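Re: that backbone. C-alpha cells:
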C-alpha cells in the first residue's frame, strides 16, 4: 500500500475524543471512554466490507477565523474599514467583495466558519462618528475625530481613539453604554448578519464579540463565541470593560459568561488574544491587582471558560520566543516583542514567559503541582484579528491588518503601524496569519463549538494543511502503515487536546503523528513534537524532537536535522515543490520519559520555505525592499497539546 493511501486513511478516518452530549461538554475521560468503546467494537469485529461503515467521528478539519473586525469596531472604522458584518461573512463564504479601498477581493477557497468579533466597547460608535451624528458633533473630541476622518486623516484619528480608550480619556458623551439604544442596535445588526449567513452543513457563522481589556495599554482581550442561535444571544448584550456595566478584570467576564448560561441555557467560551502585547499580564502567576498567588478558584474558573488560546495572528506569532527557547532553531518566527499595544511601555525579558504559549503551558504544570489545578490547560488555534472585514491570511492575497494597509506600494516602506515611547512596529512587520482548524463531525455551530471545547483543534499560520496528533502507550510502527490506522490510533490513545493518565508499569508515551500538505500549498519539511515538563526539582523544562521529515536527511551528531533547503525566488515571488514532501507520518516514543513528572506534548509541522507577502508586494509593485525586510518564511501548524499526569 502506498504511503499516500495510508496517510489519507489516517487523516480521513481518524477519530476524535468524542461528541459532547447536549448541555455542558462531558469530562474528557468520559468522552474518551465512550468513543474508545465504539472504536474497539468496530476494530475488533467489522461485519461490513466497507471499512468506513459505522464511523461517527470527524473525518476532516474545518478551517475558519474566530477573530475578525468590521466597521462596527471603533478602531477598525477609524482606520478606514467600511465593510459590515454581512460583507465579512460573504467574503468568508467565498464571494468576491470590494474592499474598503475599492479593490476586488476574494479568497482562494471559501472558509468553513467565521466569528465576526467586533469590539464590545463602543460597538457601533464609528458609523455614528463618520455620519456626524449630533451628539458626536456636540463633543469637541468627537467633532475633531469626525473632521480628521472625513479629511483623510483616519489613521491619525484611529491612533488617538485607541490611546484615548486605553488611557481612559473618553468623555461620557462618546461612551456607548450597552444599555443605550445605539449600542443595542449595533448588537442586533451583528446577530442578524450571523443568522443570515449561517448555513448548517455548508458554512457556520458564529455570533461573537471581543471583550477589550486594555487598561494601561496591556492587551488582555478575549474573543467570546456563542454556541447558540440569535434567539438566545439577543437576550443579552456583550460585556464591556467600563463600569458600572463592565470591568477590565477577566473575572468579570467569566461572571458574565456564567450569568448568560444560567439565564438562557446556552453556552459560550472565551479565547484569549495572543499575549505578546500584554507585557507579561496574559498568563500571570499572581492574581492581577492583588499581588497574591493564584488560588484554586481562579485556576478552575479560567480553565473552565478559556479552553483555547490564539497562538498566531496578524500581530505576531506567540508560540515561543528565542529568549525562552534558546535551543529551538525555529523559535525566532514573526515575533513582536517591543512593547504593549500602544507602545507606552517597553518590553523587558522578564515579561516574556508570561506571554507565550509554550511557556504558559509550562507555568500551568507548575501551578497544577502546587494548587492542584492547571489554569493554562488550553488548546491552540490561529485567527487573523484583521480590522478590514476580510479574513485573508494567504501570503499572495494579504489585505493587511487595517484598511490603510490594504494592498498598495507604500505598506513596505517603513510606515509605523503602532508607535509610542517604547518604539514602533512597522506595517511590514504584520503577518498574514492565521486560521483555526477544528476536527468536528459536521459544519454546524454545535459540532464546531463542542470540538473547540474539547480542544480538538490546531493553529495554522495560513496554509490549510491537515494535521493529526494522537498519544497513548501502545502505538507501534505498524500502526502507521495499517489499512485502518484511525481505529488503531483512537483505540490505543487520545487525540490532540486529550489527557494521558499514569503510565502503565514499564511503558512510555507513544505518539501517532500525520500531516498532509495544503493541496495548493507548499510541501512539508518536518513534523516535530514539543515536550514540556517539570523535572524532579520542580524546574520547568522543554525539548523539541524531530519525529518525521522529508527526504533522506539524517540528524547530525548533535541531534539536529539538516535544513530542508529553499527554492524561493524572491524577485519573482515563486517557489517550487521540488524539495520537501507532500505528507509525513510516524510513530514516536518519548526517549526521556519519567513517569513521576508532569508533562505536555504538542505537534509542530513546518512547510518548506515560501515567499512572504512582502516579496509578493515587491514583485507586483516593482519595489526594491529594504535589506532588513523578511521576504520568505516557513509557514507552520501547531496542534493542541496532550497532557500527561502522574499518579497522585
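Recovered sequence:
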Amino acid at each position: 500500500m502506498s504511503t499516500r493511501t495510508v496517510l489519507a486513511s489516517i487523516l480521513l478516518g481518524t477519530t476524535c475524543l468524542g461528541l459532547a452530549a447536549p448541555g455542558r461538554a462531558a469530562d474528557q475521560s468520559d468522552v474518551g471512554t465512550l468513543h474508545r468503546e465504539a472504536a474497539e467494537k468496530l476494530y475488533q469485529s467489522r461485519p461490513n466490507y466497507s471499512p468506513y461503515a459505522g464511523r461517527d467521528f470527524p473525518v476532516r478539519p474545518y478551517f475558519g477565523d474566530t477573530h475578525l473586525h468590521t466597521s462596527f469596531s471603533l478602531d477598525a472604522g477609524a482606520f478606514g474599514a467600511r465593510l459590515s458584518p454581512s460583507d465579512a461573512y460573504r467574503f468568508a463564504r467565498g464571494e468576491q467583495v470590494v474592499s474598503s479601498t475599492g479593490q476586488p477581493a476574494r479568497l482562494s477557497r471559501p472558509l468553513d466558519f467565521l466569528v465576526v468579533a467586533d469590539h464590545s466597547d463602543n460597538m457601533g460608535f464609528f458609523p455614528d462618528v463618520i455620519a456626524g451624528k449630533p451628539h458626536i458633533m456636540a463633543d469637541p473630541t468627537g467633532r475633531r475625530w469626525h473632521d480628521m476622518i472625513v479629511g483623510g486623516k483616519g489613521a491619525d484619528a484611529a491612533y488617538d481613539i485607541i490611546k484615548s480608550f486605553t488611557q481612559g480619556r473618553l468623555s461620557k458623551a462618546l461612551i456607548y453604554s450597552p444599555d443605550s439604544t445605539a449600542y443595542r442596535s449595533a448588537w442586533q445588526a451583528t446577530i442578524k448578519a450571523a443568522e443570515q449567513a449561517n448555513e448548517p452543513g455548508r458554512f457556520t457563522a458564529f455570533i461573537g464579540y471581543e471583550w477589550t481589556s486594555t487598561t494601561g495599554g496591556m492587551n488582555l482581550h478575549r474573543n467570546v463565541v456563542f454556541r447558540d442561535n440569535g434567539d438566545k444571544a439577543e437576550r443579552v448584550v456583550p460585556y464591556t470593560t467600563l463600569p458600572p456595566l463592565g470591568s477590565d478584570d477577566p473575572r468579570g467576564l467569566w461572571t458574565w459568561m456564567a450569568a448568560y448560561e444560567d439565564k438562557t441555557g446556552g453556552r459560550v467560551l472565551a479565547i484569549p488574544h495572543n499575549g505578546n502585547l500584554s507585557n507579561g499580564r496574559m498568563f500571570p502567576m499572581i492574581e492581577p491587582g492583588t499581588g497574591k498567588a493564584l488560588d484554586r478558584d481562579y485556576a478552575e474558573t479560567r480553565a473552565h471558560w478559556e479552553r483555547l488560546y490564539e497562538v498566531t495572528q496578524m500581530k505576531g506569532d506567540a508560540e515561543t520566543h528565542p529568549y525562552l527557547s534558546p535551543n529551538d532553531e525555529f523559535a525566532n518566527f514573526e515575533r513582536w516583542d517591543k512593547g504593549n499595544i500602544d507602545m507606552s511601555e517597553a518590553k523587558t525579558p522578564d515579561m516574556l514567559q508570561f506571554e507565550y504559549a509554550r511557556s504558559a503551558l509550562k507555568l500551568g504544570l507548575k501551578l497544577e503541582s502546587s494548587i492542584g489545578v492547571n489554569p493554562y490547560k488550553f488548546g491552540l488555534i490561529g485567527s487573523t484579528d484583521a480590522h478590514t472585514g476580510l479574513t485573508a491570511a494567504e501570503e499572495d492575497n494579504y489585505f493587511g491588518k487595517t484598511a490603510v494597509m490594504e494592498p498598495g506600494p507604500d505598506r513596505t516602506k517603513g510606515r509605523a503601524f503602532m508607535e509610542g515611547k517604547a518604539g514602533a512596529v512597522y506595517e511590514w512587520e504584520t503577518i498574514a496569519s492565521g486560521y483555526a482548524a477544528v476536527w468536528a463531525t459536521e459544519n454546524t455551530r454545535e459540532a464546531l463549538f463542542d470540538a473547540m471545547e474539547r480542544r480538538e483543534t490546531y493553529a495554522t499560520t495560513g496554509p490549510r494543511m491537515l494535521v493529526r496528533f494522537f498519544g497513548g502507550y501502545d502505538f507501534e510502527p505498524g500502526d502507521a502503515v495499517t489499512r485502518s490506522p484511525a481505529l488503531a490510533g483512537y483505540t490505543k490513545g487520545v487525540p490532540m487536546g486529550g489527557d494521558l493518565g499514569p503510565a502503565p508499569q514499564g511503558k512510555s508515551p507513544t505518539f501517532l503523528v500525520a500531516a498532509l500538505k495544503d493541496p495548493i500549498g507548499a510541501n512539508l519539511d518536518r513534523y516535530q513534537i514539543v515536550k514540556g515538563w517539570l523535572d524532579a526539582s520542580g524546574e520547568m523544562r522543554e525539548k523539541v524532537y524531530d519525529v518525521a521529515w522529508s527526504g533522506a536527511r539524517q540528524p547530525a551528531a548533535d541531534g539536529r536535522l539538516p535544513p530542508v533547503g529553499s527554492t524561493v525566488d524572491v524577485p519573482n515571488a515563486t517557489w517550487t515543490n521540488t524539495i520537501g514532501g507532500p505528507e509525513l507520518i510516524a510513530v514516536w516514543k518519548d526517549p526521556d520519559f519519567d513517569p513521576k513528572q508532569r508533562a505536555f506534548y504538542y505537534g509542530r509541522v513546518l512547510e518548506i520555505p515560501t515567499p512572504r507577502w512582502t516579496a509578493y508586494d515587491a514583485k507586483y509593485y516593482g519595489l526594491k525592499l529594504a535589506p532588513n525586510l523578511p521576504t520568505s518564511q516557513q509557514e507552520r501548524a501547531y496542534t493542541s497539546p496532550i497532557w500527561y499526569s502522574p499518579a497522585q
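The first strand starts at residue 61 and ends at 68. Residues 331 and 633 are 12 Å apart (CA to CA).
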